[in-house]
Specification:
The complex is a heterodimer of chains A (241) and B (320).
Chain A (H helix, E strand, L loop, with lengths): L4 E10 L2 E11 L4 E5 L6 H9 L6 E6 L2 E2 L5 H7 L1 E4 L11 H12 L6 H14 L15 H14 L4 E5 L7 H14 L4 E5 L3 H7 L2 E6 L2 E6 L1 H6 L1 H8 L4
Parallel strand pairs in A: 3-8, 3-9, 6-7, 7-8
Antiparallel strand pairs in A: 1-2, 1-4, 4-5, 9-10
Chain B lengths: L6 H20 L2 H27 L7 H18 L3 H23 L4 H21 L1 H4 L5 E2 L6 E4 L2 E4 L3 H24 L1 H11 L1 H5 L5 H27 L1 E2 L7 H13 L6 H19 L3 H15 L3 H9 L6
Antiparallel strand pairs in B: 1-4, 2-3
Helix pairs in contact in B: 1-7, 2-7, 2-10, 2-11, 2-12, 3-4, 3-10, 4-10, 7-8, 7-10, 8-10, 11-12, 11-14, 12-13
The chains are: A alpha/beta (241), B mainly alpha (320).
Bound molecules: adenosine-5'-triphosphate (ATP) and magnesium ion.
Chain lengths: 241, 320
């Protein structure tokens, strides 16, 4: 099977700092892949390169067999790469409804279908449990709900690859359980690349785990293998297995 | 936005149009003439609001789009003897083309740089008008003869210098532009424009080519302003370079800020308000600009979102 996403020698420096340093990475379709690593390891920078938010210093990105290294971000979104922000970046002054309507209406090709936007928006809000708050300005939602709104916006893009950057940050435990269910459901129709710090969430969701450290991939494997990997424990998990 | 039932906003806008229509029959001559002028200039303000209010791009060069319409219509009538509809179309075309070129160049910048770039282009436009004084009349301007300002429709002919015809023509243009603006801001495209204003990076990450969307907005805005300029030339018969000066780039900004940025009726209210404050105060004192200045400062202090913007915020959330 051909990977959905491949990077070759992908690098990005900020001044002298090599935030992402020659990363070779492959992701199979249908997979849920977790990316872990200590703070500042380059996880956000790596997925930002994939989504096109920032430009690489060198290297190549291939999505579904096509070189997308030089495509602008919006064109990658149209190919099916959706990115949800680590730092919540919803449209604070617009209602939750309008926030989701933006991605929904973009994926609709039939401009005349009047009810289609509403149906699509409400479906995405239902899935994330925000339907009752559709008319609240996004800025007035609780932090956890804003995180979920980010996910709803990503979902509404009908992506083939959904990149979630620390989506459970700020969620209550009860909300995390729902979130795990939600990601399982999303994974039926999309490949998921999930940056997470919350180990229980990773262990429940991930098919495979990639560990970043200092801009490089330190290890990659099944959750079990990663848990037992001594190097990883050293760099990231401390000493507790 | 698109959520509110469409009935209320449309009823309100049609009501405003009906009121302006009725006023034509009751206003004394002086106010009748002034209101016709205000409606034409409110179209200029609506065009400005399209870009400033909804997309959040502050231009300091919109006088060039108004003047493109003014000269596009005025010069074709004056030198080429074109009829009224053809001249009006020429004005629109000049504005649209100019806006396309300026948009392609100026949209590479944002914020303060965008303000400066648009101001520089407008200044170039102004100087070009002065340079070709043998065609444009320079700072004297041109007066379009009454005979040229007759709209021939089949066997009927409408004299645009007749006050009632002029008022109704101004109202017709105002109404069309108002309803177009309302339709745009309530549309899916309007939602994208507001998203760009609120957070352009995020909008890109939802798959929108924000540059193209902004470029379309600049062209729509420039064309509306050109429609105002072209109507001004044909209805009031004067084409002059003062309309291309920086003052006429700042005026629509003031009108929109006063009335309420990103409200569909704010441009009308702001233009109306400013004209009447000047009109009333200049009757009392020669220092009327001082009073206008104070009125503006008070408004900004107590109604930072403009008259209609504040009303929307406090009482009428459904206002488009
Ligand atoms: N725009 C930028 N300019 C300069 N340095 C940056 C920029 N973005 C990231 N960095 C630096 O690059 C390194 C990698 O940052 P990145 O945000 O990718 O880490 P991360 O793995 O996502 O960390 P976290 O777990 O804290 O989110 C850090 O040292 C960070 O300070
Ligand atoms: Mg990060």
């Amino acid at each position: 099977m051909m990977p959905l996403l491949t990077t070759k020698g992908l690098s990005r420096s900020f001044g002298g700092l090599r935030a992402v340093d020659g990363v070779d990475f492959a992701l199979m379709p249908g997979e849920i892949r977790a990316v872990i690593g200590p703070n500042g390891a380059g996880k956000t920078t790596f997925v930002s390169l994939v989504s096109g938010r920032i430009q690489p210093s060198s290297g190549m990105i291939v999505f579904d067999g096509a070189d997308i290294t030089n495509l602008p971000a919006y064109a990658r979104v149209r190919l099916g790469v959706a990115y949800t922000f680590q730092i919540t970046s919803v449209f604070a002054n617009l209602s939750a409804y309008d926030n989701v309507a933006l991605p929904v209406q973009r994926t609709l090709t039939d401009g005349r279908s009047k009810g289609a936007v509403r149906t699509g928006v409400m479906a995405a809000l239902e899935r994330t449990g925000l339907a009752a708050r559709a008319h609240m300005p996004a800025g007035q939602l609780s932090y956890g709900h804003q995180r979920l709104l980010e996910v709803a916006m990503g979902l509404a893009l009908k992506p083939r690859l959904l990149i979630l950057d620390e989506p459970t940050q700020g969620l209550a435990d009860s909300e995390i359980d729902n979130f795990i269910q939600l990601v399982r459901e999303i994974a039926k129709s999309a490949t998921v690349l999930l940056i997470e710090h919350n180990m229980p969430v990773i262990m429940q969701l991930a098919d495979r785990i990639t560990v970043f450290n200092a801009g490089k991939i330190l290890a990659e494997g099944t959750p079990k293998a990663i848990r037992e990997n001594a190097e990883v424990q050293q760099a990231y998990l401390g000493t507790t297995p | 936005m698109t959520e509110a039932s469409p009935a209320k906003p449309y009823a309100l806008h049609l009501g405003v149009i009906a009121l302006l229509f009725a006023l034509s029959f009751v206003l004394p001559d002086y106010h009748h003439g002034l209101l016709a002028r205000i409606m034409v200039l409110a179209v200029f303000a609506m065009g400005y609001n399209m870009l400033f209010g909804y997309v959040g791009l502050l231009s300091l060069g919109h006088a060039m789009f108004f003047s493109a319409g003014l000269y596009g219509a005025g010069l074709t009538v004056y030198h080429l003897g074109w009829n009224v509809p053809a001249a009006f179309a020429a004005g629109l075309a000049c504005g649209a083309l100019l806006a396309l070129v300026i948009g392609l160049l100026a949209l590479r910048t944002t914020g303060v740089a965008f303000m400066i770039v648009t101001m520089m282009f407008a200044q170039v436009f102004y100087l070009v008008i002065l340079y070709f004084a043998s065609w444009t009349g320079g700072d004297q301007g041109l007066v379009v003869q009454q005979a040229a300002r007759v709209l021939v429709l089949g066997s009927a002919s409408l004299d645009l210098t007749n006050p009632t015809v002029r008022y109704m023509s101004a109202l017709a243009l105002f109404s069309i532009v108002l309803l177009i603006t309302l339709a745009i801001v309530r549309s899916r495209y309007g939602r994208v424009l507001v998203a760009i204003r609120e957070n352009e990076e995020r909008t890109k990450m939802l798959g929108y080519d924000t540059f193209s969307n902004k470029l379309i907005a600049v062209v729509v805005s420039g064309t509306i302003c050109a429609a105002s300029g072209a109507a001004y030339a044909l209805l009031f018969g004067y084409v002059g370079s003062s309309f291309a000066s920086v003052q006429y780039s700042i005026l629509p900004l003031l009108w929109v800020l006063l009335g309420g940025a990103a409200t569909t009726l704010g441009p009308l209210i702001g233009t109306l308000f400013m004209y009447y404050v000047i009109d009333i105060t200049s009757g009392f004192t020669s220092a009327y600009l001082l009073i206008v200045g104070i009125a503006l400062i008070l408004l900004v202090l107590f109604f930072p979102k403009g008259i209609l913007g504040s009303i929307r915020q406090r009482w009428l959330g459904w206002l488009p």
